[in-house]
Amino acid sequence: MAFPSISFVFLCFFCFSFLNEPRLSLADHVLYTDEILMPGQNLTNGPYLLAMHHNCRLVLYNNTQPSWSTNATANGNSDCYLVLTQRGELVVRRSVHYALWSSGARSKKGKYALVLDAKGRIAIYGHRRWSTSNPNGLGGPEDLAIEEPATEYVLQSGHRMLAGDKLKYKEYELAFWRCNLVINHTRSGRWLWQTNTKVTQGPAGCYLQLESSGELSVKNGAQRLWSSNKRTDSGLHLAVLRFDGRLAVYGPLVWSNVRMDDSIVADAVTYGGSEYI
Ligand SMILES: *[C@@H]1O[C@H](CO)[C@@H](O)[C@H](O)[C@H]1NC(C)=O
Ligand SMILES: *[C@@H]1O[C@H](CO)[C@@H](O)[C@H](O)[C@H]1NC(C)=O
Ligand SMILES: *[C@@H]1O[C@H](CO)[C@@H](O)[C@H](O)[C@H]1NC(C)=O
Ligand SMILES: *[C@@H]1O[C@H](CO)[C@@H](O)[C@H](O)[C@H]1NC(C)=O
Fold this sequence. Notes:
Keywords: Lectin, Signal. By secondary structure, the chain is mainly beta. The chain contains one helix and 24 strands.
């Protein structure tokens, strides 16, 4: 029998060709649609860790104390993985197809994002509603730079990113240059995208705000200087500075492991890296 191995390879290529073993590194806290978390891999945000174990259990830890977990296990098996599907469903699969656990909430086909946030909650947002139009990363092997995303790269709706703040993912940085909102490739110093906003008169107190409608805007005081012009259903949204150097908006919330407060006090909360509703 010379063929089984070939058909096995073909089968597995077929099964996994749409999945991406992630470019996850230490302190990554976002998983995107079609990315998988293999046994031994994890998402990390401060003291919080979401780990996929070899016994197929997905466990959320707070400082090494388990705080939430899926209960289905498979003894002696480590052919399991966690995937975020195009329907915004989180599934622990075993033996390629068999679903051992699922978040259960299936939504419209699209691109979703699973986030382990700074409060230790896991939540799925989507589908993706808007994205900046800059080219997809800069290419080249340097993109695998080992620089770790030690900083926040997610802005939640109801929060603001003030002029002195930034979102940073590896070599990409979203920051204000005066009142111009810029995605900076810090290794080359090149600006990949910008809003071209400026304030010609009076004092400038510019900030980026994500509304509960999913609309992203640059404001100076009450004056709107720029908008993504993309509104969706009201609810919790996220703006994420992605691994490819794009800023994208996902939402509203489709699932979370705990009850999330949907009430948004848009003007009361200021983004400060760890200040959440
Ligand atoms: C989490 O993942 C990182 C990077 O892959 C790894 O170095 C670390 O040991 C993992 N931690 C745990 C507790 O699994
Ligand atoms: C995590 O643990 C710390 C104490 O170790 C506690 O103060 C904090 O509230 C916990 N976080 C959650 C989300 O329960
Ligand atoms: C796992 O079991 C515990 C204890 O019975 C339960 O509290 C928890 O909700 C279960 N986890 C899930 C994800 O269903
Ligand atoms: C872009 O990154 C370069 C290199 O780190 C830095 O010198 C420059 O100030 C940054 N530009 C902005 C607008 O943040």
